């Protein structure tokens, strides 16, 4: 690469890294497929546990070593992944590259996004529609005056009493623990789609995203302890944890996990994880969000649905025989327990997960489990469904709903829509369904305010 191109990269280094971060892994894969980088170079970036912005910077460092056409190859790769903001930076003379399909800015200006009656699809969306997380809708500073006013209110003393501050250029850390390959349990095919969906979504929502893959119980706990102790959180607005793994009632398995005589071994209690971060001094008063994608038992969700068959071609992405459970075993056809018993067990498990007892300190009257949100993919005793090609119902529903509605709804309403959407999915064999559960001790409304930050 000539000196002029290197100077260009240095001048636009931060802007390019930020623009590529939401899909940097996909850009790297395009460059590999096109023969621009080697497999070793690709793995050095993709398999690293750095946040996506750091990976993007590694890619910018690498591309400067790939010959005189390095920038041209990068430009073609970001175009293929529809990263039009990055393409505008690389080739400003060709901008705007696709004004009607801009991942963030143009799509947010559609009239339909302002409709208060805009609802979820009647059936589970197609794979292309689920990929809406690549087209995040953001607050338009001109047209969405209500949301802008709400955002500005968070900078006032009165506003901060009712709405969590979510204004930093980088909102905070999203940690994803993605366990796919296990020593004793079935491989979780399809989890890569979940990881990519979450990484893309939360980068677009202005979070740093870090991925830890295939961790044993002890390795998971070490990662969690180190994360909870980081000084990074002192300057962040929020912390988010996703655990994608096998599980059982109230626990998640490490890759060395096993279920022996219905006793889970090599697992971590969800309550213990929540307690760990609730004690972090750097996160006091800040929202701490926990999303657990794992089974909580072995039962299929509910009884078979007795209703006329629908056209499976319209719902084939989800209702295929590729659906499997995220539990320690994959048991089919078991009877469900009574509805009131399910409700009681669910309440008992989540009550134990989130503690709200007062602190023993005379000077601290904040509940010890305050500012916590926990969402479980399914209720205690039941399987959580995963499509081995496009991912889990729960995570894909989060990606779809957040991308479509986070610009105008708070977290509580977003998760109600997630549960609604998950409830519309069903397996082709047996017509089994799933419903998630959530509980929180949030003391304020939490809006993500995509597209807005305190610099504005």
Description:
The strands form 4 sheets. This protein has a 6-stranded mixed beta sheet, with helices on both faces. It has a 3-stranded antiparallel beta sheet with strand order 4-5-6. A 3-stranded antiparallel beta sheet has the order 9-12-13. The radius of gyration is 22 Å and the shape is globular. The protein has 456 residues and is of the alpha/beta class. The protein starts with a helix and ends in a 16-residue tail after the last strand. It folds into 2 domains: 92 residues, Orthogonal Bundle (Death Domain, Fas); 296 residues, Rossmann fold. Helix 3 packs antiparallel against helix 4. The longest helix has 15 residues.
What are its keywords?
single chain; 456 residues; alpha/beta; Death Domain, Fas; Rossmann fold; 2 domains; six-stranded mixed beta sheet; three-stranded antiparallel beta sheet; 16 helices; 14 strands
Summarize the structure.
Belongs to the peptidase C14A family. This protein is 35% helix and 15% strand.
Estimate the global geometry from the Cα principal axes.
globular
Total DSSP helices: 16
Find the count of extended strands (DSSP E, 2+ residues): 14
Mean pLDDT: 78
Domain Caspase family p10: 367-450
Active site: 246, 295
Family: Belongs to the peptidase C14A family.
Region (Disordered): 94-122, 299-331
């Amino acid at each position: 690469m000539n000196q002029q191109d290197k100077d260009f990269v240095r001048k636009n280094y931060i802007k390019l890294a930020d623009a590529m971060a939401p899909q940097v892994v996909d850009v790297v894969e395009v460059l590999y497929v096109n023969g621009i980088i080697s497999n070793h170079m690709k793995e050095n970036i993709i398999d690293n546990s750095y946040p996506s912005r750091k990976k993007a910077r590694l890619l910018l460092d690498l591309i400067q070593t790939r010959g005189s056409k390095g920038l041209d190859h990068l430009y073609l790769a970001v175009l293929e992944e529809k990263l039009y903001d990055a393409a505008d930076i690389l080739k400003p003379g060709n901008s705007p590259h696709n004004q009607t399909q801009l991942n963030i800015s143009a799509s947010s200006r559609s009239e339909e996004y302002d409709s208060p009656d805009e609802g979820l699809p009647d059936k589970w969306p197609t794979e292309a529609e689920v990929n809406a997380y690549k087209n995040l809708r953001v607050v338009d500073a001109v047209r969405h005056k209500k949301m802008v006013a709400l955002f500005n209110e968070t900078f006032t003393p009165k506003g901060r009493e009712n709405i969590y501050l979510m204004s930093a250029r980088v909102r905070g850390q999203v940690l994803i623990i993605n366990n796919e390959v296990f020593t004793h349990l079935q491989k979780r095919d399809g989890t890569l789609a979940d990881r990519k969906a979450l990484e893309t979504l939360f980068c677009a929502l202005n979070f740093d995203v870090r991925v830890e893959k295939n961790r044993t119980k002890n390795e998971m706990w070490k990662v969690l302890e180190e994360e909870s102790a980081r000084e990074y959180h002192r300057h962040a607005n929020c912390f988010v944890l996703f655990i994608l793994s096998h599980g059982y009632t109230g626990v998640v398995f490490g890759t060395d996990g096993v279920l022996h005589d219905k006793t889970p071994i090599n697992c971590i209690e969800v309550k213990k994880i929540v307690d760990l971060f609730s004690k972090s001094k750097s996160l006091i008063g800040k929202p701490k969000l926990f999303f657990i994608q794992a089974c909580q038992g072995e039962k299929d969700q509910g009884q078979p649905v007795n209703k006329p068959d629908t056209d499976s071609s319209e719902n084939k992405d989800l209702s295929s025989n590729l659906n499997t459970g995220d539990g320690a075993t994959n048991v089919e056809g078991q009877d469900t327990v009574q509805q009131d018993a399910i409700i009681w067990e669910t309440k008992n498990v989540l009550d134990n997960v989130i503690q709200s007892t007062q602190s023993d300190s005379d000077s601290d009257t904040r509940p010890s489990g305050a500012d916590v949100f926990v969402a479980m993919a399914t209720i205690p005793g039941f399987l959580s469904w995963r499509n081995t090609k496009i991912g889990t119902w729960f995570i894909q529903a989060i990606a779809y709903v957040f991308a479509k509605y986070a610009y105008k709804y708070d977290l509580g309403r977003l998760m109600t829509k997630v549960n609604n959407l998950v409830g519309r999915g069903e397996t082709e064999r047996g017509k089994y369904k799933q419903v998630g559960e959530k509980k929180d001790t949030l003391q304020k409304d939490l809006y993500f305010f995509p597209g807005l930050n305190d610099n504005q």
